[in-house]
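REVIEWER CHECKLIST
Item 1: Sequence provided? yes
Item 2: Single chain? yes
Item 3: Sequence as submitted:
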Amino acid sequence: MAKDEKEIVEMIVKYNAHKGGAKGEWYVGAAKDPKKDLFKTHGVIKEKDFWVYDFAVDVQELGRAMDKLLMMGYDGEAPKAYDGLGFYVYQKRQHTKE
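Item 4: Structure as written out by the authors:
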């Protein structure tokens, strides 16, 4: 089920708390195809790394959630325009690309 701003932020904060690490060790992003961004663009290893993705209900909710997460100290880059409703977070490792 697609998530609103509050649900997106809660999901990522809870996942971070469960897996551990400072907020700055995690990268948040938004993409039309979050799986492609995670595994191809950022080099996340599906079986070894900590990651999660989902979809927002609309671009406004996604934009507000991304802004809030970045202000909270998560790493990432707020896109100038959203080309989809997908979002993701992964724990940065030596082999991942930001």
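Item 5: Key structural point noted by reviewer: DSSP finds three helices and four strands in the chain.
Item 6: Recommendation: ____
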